[in-house]
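Database export, one record per block. Field names are fixed; values are copied verbatim from the stored entry.
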Amino acid sequence: MQLLITGGTGFVGSHAQHHFLNQGHDVTLIGTRPAPEGLDHARCRYIRADTTASGDWQEAVGQADLILNLAGRTISKRWTARYKTQIRESRILTTRNLVAALPAASRAVLISTSAVGFYGDGGEMELAETSPGGDDFLADLSREWEAAAMDATEKGARVVIARFGIVLGRDGGPLAAMVQPFRAFMGGPIGSGRQWFPWIHMEDLLAAIQFLYDHAELHGAFNLCSPNPVRNRELAQTIGKVIGRPAVMPVPALALKLMLGEMAEAVMASQRAIPAKLLAAGFQFQYSDLEPALVDLLTTPAR
């Protein structure tokens, strides 16, 4: 398989690169940064490009069997008006350029990232793929992002929208940031602690992407998250238990708003998302429950 990954130097992209190379596939990475150190695999090439603009990088699109669209500026920093524009353009313009570069009558599979942020703050509602979208910044962004990807169907591509939960993995990402205050004996729940936290282990995420590619009958939106979301309070207690630290220092909602501004709403949103379509298709999770996932990621040496 010829695989193209946009956002190839990011947290998920770096893990995806190694996963698919180990599966014997040829991988082309596209990123905005200089080529990562040690990137000398015979079946991996790197293209440095600004994917929000048309360019020579688009020639690689027509050669790919699978396009994994992970490009996008991080949402994990304060959202100024200027930065919100960058968040949007890095996703929407990249996706439009990918679709524009697809050949007519394409046989490619486009797996394009979205997020469970599509649903907004769902409170106690169980959120399956048929649940309505929200009305905040991330929900509006996700809708526009998904619509841009679905345009690839007009060129014959099979399109899968991967609505990621919070991806837990080694070597950075959200888990590293979450664990840091616990190691300093300052960890605890955020706000009321009652909000639902949709999560997925990196190994399950990559296995799900492979599963979605392998099953030609699957298309449309899929929630990529554990079937067992937890409340934020349980998340804090489980992190504390696994690393042997207390979880008794809550972060007040007001303090979070002062620190993060509008982004605090996304951090405190409740999203009880479930992978209904993935389970119905027969996908089996290796890490359905949070504690074994955290034990693996925080106490077990990398394999």
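Remark 1: The mean pLDDT is 95.
Remark 2: The longest strand covers residues 109-115.
End of record.
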